[in-house]
Amino acid sequence: MIPPVRPVPSRGRSTRAWAVFLDRDGTLVPDAGYVRRARELKLYPFVGEALRSLRRAGARLVVVSNQAAVARGLLDLDGLARMDRRLRALARSAGAPLDAAYYCPHHPDFGRPCRCRKPAPGMLRRGIRAFGIDPSRSFLIGDHATDLEAGKRAGLTTVLVLTGHGRRHRREVVERKLADKICRDAASAARWILEARAREEAKAPGPPRPRAR
Ligand SMILES: [Mg+2]
Ligand SMILES: [Zn+2]
Description:
Helix content is about 35%, strand content about 15%. The chain has about 210 residues and is α/β, with parallel strands linked by helices. It has a six-stranded parallel beta sheet with strand order 3-2-1-4-5-6, sandwiched between helices. The structure holds magnesium ion (MG) and zinc ion.
């Protein structure tokens, strides 16, 4: 998989760190098929505020994206890097810089199977390690069954959004019980996540106390 170009500096590792893992196409940006120019990449209008609210609440923001267009020869690594820079710039201008973005450039029809292409959890595990993330307190938002399956395999709470291919994947996601929640879009997913976090915080106030021996 392709490592993040420039991770945002960490504010220190914490076992309490949590993250929202985000699919890109159909979740953050309209899914317009395979080949796209970086300058054509744009966030859904509701995504900026959604990402800002998650960041304000202390979430790490990690994009995890299958980009099989590379394996198919439709996009080269420079093109993928340009799209990555563009995505980060858009998130930054929206006031919500990404902590990392991981891309799987592979496809099993064009080479050996890899461990990063979703539904494999490789990119998620990498983010979990990189930022000391507690998966049980963290989330994944995506529009495909494969996104949610990867999230489940990494121990995350999963949210299906109905943008992108979400409506098409809804039945499979429900039948396979891959989603903890189904939301209209990433904005309503972010609101649900913040409510879920608030409920958890209310249940376990303050840092854990040392156990008496
Ligand atoms: Mg997608
Ligand atoms: Zn891969």
